[in-house]
Design a protein that fits this description.
About 85% of the residues lie in helices and about 0% in strands. The chain is built from 1 helix and no strands.
Length: about 20
Amino acid sequence: HRRIELSRRLSGATVEGSNK
């Protein structure tokens, strides 16, 4: 499975939400 992709997506989503 691609756990790195999920982790990166979660990290990106969190950063985007925090930024907004």
